Fold each of these.
Amino acid sequence: MSFKHKKKLGQHFLSDKNIAKKIVRQANIQSDEFIWEIGPGKGILTNELLGKTANVTAFEIDKYLWPILQNEFGDKLNLIKEDVLKSDWNSYFPVDRKIKIVANLPYQITSPFLFKIIDFQEHFNTVIVMVQREVALRIKAGLGSKDYGILSLKMQFYFHTKYLFTVEPHVFYPPPRVHSAVISLIPRLDRPVLKNEKFFWKVVEASFSNRRKMLRNNLKPLLSGEKFGALTETSPIDLKRRGESLSEEEFIILYRHIYNLQQN
Ligand code: SAM
């Protein structure tokens, strides 16, 4: 039976084994390591992963792929027949072991997936994933780049990010319209300690809510009239600036100031 690729599941399968090998090489897998693959598809990457370690768990949502994967790998592969975004990851983590994620991610789940790994960060030691090139550029963008924004700040706050290599559309079937890129994310152990991380991200998100507006306008909805007045008089960061001009350190200074104003 021929397999119908589903666009809505981001099914662009790698057709070049050398790219699969190149991705797996980047992960530098030892034989006792635990790997999670997201969306094994027909198993081109899975096959390379199983060549390195016997501990491979793969999450695949498409029921038409389950028999193909089971025929190919049998019990060697721990296949989780679930939507990786809805899956209860806690029930699959090995005890006292960190996991490496290696995956060619389906494009439509990239952002929610990256946000989910932030929440479970302590369980992973390395994440090597293929994403759309445009997303990879945003993830690693530094201050001053046109790609710099919330995604850059968020991913760089929690991970050391690295752009590894670009992948051309023709190595997939069917080929996507855009280029892809493989990136690595290593959890950052030295990340700043904040009293209220959730509120920090509220400040960052508010600062970018309208890219063309100054901080003064974007931050207004965060505070009551009186406290906003106090902010305009005492802010350690010039509120005429735009969110995109602030570094992580400056956002932390701004957040601390606003947080203190709110507590008083
Ligand atoms: N790894 C294969 C390869 O490189 O050829 C397939 C990669 S393809 C870009 C993405 C895969 O993720 C597809 O097999 C698709 O069915 C699966 N997928 C899409 N959404 C998913 C989800 N929410 N949870 C688990 N798998 C998903």
Amino acid sequence: MKKITTALAAGAMALTPFAVLAEDSSDPIVIPIHNWSSQIVMSNVVGQILEQRGNNVEYVTTDSQAVYESVRLGDVTMELEVWEGAFGASFRAAQEKGGIVDVGDHDAVTREDWWYPMWTKDACPGLPDWKALNDCAAVFATPETGGKGRYLDGPVDWLKHGQERVAALDMDFVVINAGSAAALWAEIGAAEADKKPVVVFNWTPNFAEAVWPGEFVEFPPHEEGCDKDPAVGINPDALYDCGNPATGYLKKAAWEGMEAKWPAAYGVLEKISFTNPQIAQMAKLVDIDEMEPDEAAEAWLAENKDVWESWIQ
Ligand code: TMO
């Protein structure tokens, strides 16, 4: 719009209607799907919005780190949930190579880190401090951990670096990667009846906060460069000696060529912004209500017309 206004102001009336009414390509817009529920539902929500306004949409299941290279190359058109903690590094690396653009932040503020359900505090009253957690490591021991505490980290592709953090902070914990997000919820659910202390990877916004009140462990605060420069952080010889960002961003990213190929859809993507409660609700429809992602998206769109209808005007 800005370009057109400027051209008219300059008296460039020879502008062809084609330039004004540039249409989206009928090629499918490729939306990647990963392995946590809000991302899957949000991708379906946005896919259905774009289909309503006439775009063709295709979904592909991809690795959540490798996707930044795929977006950069244009094999995938966009990424709707760039979590700062898990994917900031891969997003920045792709940006430096070129081909991927930052399409702005969602309203949501995110956090991803070690987390425990509130009953865990009864067994380890010094929480949420990480040193207190470490002093209590034995209460998290299982037959497999040889007296050390068990920490269930996220699936490997989220690159949470739990193992590196344990080493950098000299903690008495064994890090195990969950095979799926569902394994994290199963671990918390299984501990609930006996109020067994557990510490697992979790994040917000998520459905879990409405089901299990809990807290994040407070590690040394995140510092820029903590994952790249050993000098940064409390251990001068190690990377990953700090927590994840406590107030992280949630970005949208797109292939650089999207704006020229699907200008109207790109305009919609620029306007899209979800809040913490909206994203937690998307996850809940799948993780609690057990809907299929496409049905969850339909339900979400039906209940939230006031949120998204203005985006396609
Ligand atoms: C990438 N995640 C939101 C699951 O931490």
